[in-house]
Amino acid sequence: MARDTVDQTPIESRDEIVAWMSTAGRPEADWRIGTEHEKFGFHKADLSPVIYGGPKGVEKLLRGMEGLLGWEAILDAGHIIGLGDPVGGGAISIEPGGQFELSGAPLATLHETEREVNVHLAQVHEISEPLGIGFLGLGASPKWTRDETPIMPKSRYAIMTNYMPKVGSLGLDMMYRTATVQVNLDFRDEADMVRKMRVSLALQPVATALFANSPFTDGKPNGFLSWRGEIWRDTDNDRSGGLPRAFEPGFGYESYVDWALDVPMYFIKRGDTYTNVAGVPFRRFLEHGLPDLLPGERPTLGDWANHLGTLFPDVRLKRYLEMRGADAGSRDCLVALPALWVGLLYDAAALDAAEQLIAGWTAGERLALRDGVPVAALKTPFRTGTVRDIAREMVSIARGGLARRARLDAAGRDETRFLDVLDEIVASGLTPAERLLAEYHGAWNGSVDPVFTEFRF
Predict the structure, then answer these.
(1) 3-state DSSP call for residue 79?
(2) How many CB atoms lie within 10 A of CB 135?
(3) Are strands 267-270 and 33-43 parallel, antiparallel or unpaired?
(4) What residues pair up with 42 in beta bridges, in sequence order?
(5) Residue 61 class from Cβ within 10 Å (0-12 exposed, 13-18 middle, 19+ buried)?
(6) What are the angstrom distances between the C-alpha of 105 and each of 92, 117, 183, 185, 206?
(7) What are phi and psi of 59, to 5 degrees?
(8) pLDDT for position 118
(9) H or E segment at 75?
(10) Nearest partner of 439 among 421, 457, 424, 454, judged by Cα
(11) What value does the CA radius of gyration of the chain take, rounded to a whole number of Å?
């Protein structure tokens, strides 16, 4: 999230929250595609990470982007921490370890998404090149230890950094050493949300397998194809995971709200001040206030929206659905990820087929997929086959959905071309991570350094 919400509309009850959630649906004609992607900045001269300050730091990079784009600066305690597009709705932000993120505008087609990615990367290059900074698209930083990773001056990150070790062993690695690509998608109404939530939760591990791209940590193989996927298994299980309740009868807005109310908060923002309330469930704030921490304060819609943005299930419900299972990757993969989910969820026949694909999967099978793919990716066993078999069907269904959408570019091409990279992964059975490992054990002679040259944007 590039900018925390400050909506001061008061909330008095759980039912008011449910009512607010229930207004999130949109007619199909208004469905949009919002793509977010992160990348690691590094100094090309010595492959060191980019700190915040100094003549060649993140602050300098953000100020350069501000001048180039004319977007509004987002400040935190006087530090520039992001930029907001007042016209298109997109934003640029920095993650805890300096990962540079574009939160894309809500767009109508994947052709627009491709253009947005290409334009953004060109603009970043224009500013970063004179600074000697390059950018790398991987699911985890391949070389720097956690101690070597810089810390960005963002108030919410300080609160999270203090809290994470109390609730999991890998939360700090998640914050400082991972990067993702995700897509945010709309739904028509509660029933449509539930269908899309269940399909995308069940298939999220398959997306993790297809986009597995984080095999290195501290300059050597880490034993995983998606170390980022493994990290989410022990970050903070109160707020992350496969959300089993979504598959229970009667799941809907109320059930999600009840789950979210019992998840501990991180902070409450009033004006420019963040108050640390980490560990306190939102339900306690709603029912009793926070007399010891914020006497007299009552929850607002802004508090609720900010809280929703600090929940980390594999698919997150806000005013839209966020697909959160993929490692960051190459330029092609940054568009392939939204293409996969748009093809599956934005076409009625494809959504029907995807429901049939996951029909009968048990809670144990869904959990086994989530546990297995960080290590074995497409080779993870499932029933009588492997995840590769599911991925092949998943991509095929998505291709059909995109073909039926029939959104053409100026050259008359539909959106199915954005799945070509996934067809190649399924056909070969080799994920991006496995290709990196082959280079590491071959031409790179046991060094991760060449990845900064060969795989930078």
Answers:
(1) strand
(2) 19
(3) unpaired
(4) 49, 134
(5) buried
(6) 11, 11, 11, 12, 26
(7) -60, -45
(8) 98
(9) strand 72-76
(10) 454
(11) 21
Four-CA torsion 358, 361, 364, 368, nearest 10 degrees: -40
Give 124-163 as a DSSP string: HHHHHGGGTEEEE--SB-SS--TTTS-----HHHHHHHHH
**For residues 425 and 394, what is the distance between their CA atoms, to the nearest angstrom?**
13
133 in Cβ contact with 118 (< 8 Å): no
Phi, psi dihedral angles at 318 (to 5 degrees): -125, -120
pLDDT value at position 1? 46
> Can you read off the two tokens belonging to residue 429?
């059975």
The tens digit of pLDDT for each residue in 46-73 reads 999 999 999 999 999 999 999 999 999 9
Residues in the chain: 457
Burial 83-113 (b: 16+ CB within 10 A, else e): bbbeeeebbbbbbbbbbbbbbbbbbebbbbb
- Contact (CB, 8 A) for 267 and 277: yes
Contacts of 379 (CB under 8 A, 6+ apart): 386, 387, 388, 429
Residues 336-351 as b/e (b if ≥16 CB within 10 A, e otherwise) read: bbbbbbbbbbbbeebb
Q: How far apart are CA 70 and CA 449, in angstroms?
A: 35
Question: With contact defined as beta carbons under 8 Å apart, do 309 and 299 qualify?
Answer: no
Cα gap 382→394, rounded to integer Å: 14
Q: Which amino acid is at 439?
A: E
**Rounded CA separation 24/189 (Å):** 7
Predicted local distance difference test score (pLDDT) of residue 7:
86
Cβ-contact 24, 185 below 8 angstroms: no
Tokens representing 106? 């809500």
Q: What is the largest CA-CA distance in the chain?
A: 64
Cα 272 from Cα 230, distance rounded (Å): 35
CB 268 within 8 A of CB 211: no
Q: Are the C-beta atoms of 286 and 15 separated by less than 8 Å?
A: no
Tally of CB atoms within 10 A around 260: 22
Structure tokens at 334: 């940054």
Q: Kindly give, in sequence order, each residue whose CB lies less than 8 Å from that of residue 88, ignoring residues fewer than 6 positions away.
A: 105
Residue located via tokens 């990820």: 337
Which residues of the chain register pLDDT less than 70?
Answer: 1-3, 5
Distances (CA, A) of 410 to 104, 183, 309, 415: 22, 24, 37, 12
271 φ/ψ sector (left φ>0, alpha ψ -120 to 50, else beta): left
Chain centroid to CA 428: 26
Pairing of strands 79-84, 180-185: unpaired
Task: Read off the amino acid at residue 32.
Answer: R
The alpha carbon of residue 139 and the mean position of all alpha carbons in its chain are separated, in whole angstroms, by 11
Residue 111 sits at φ, ψ, to 5 deg, of: -60, -40
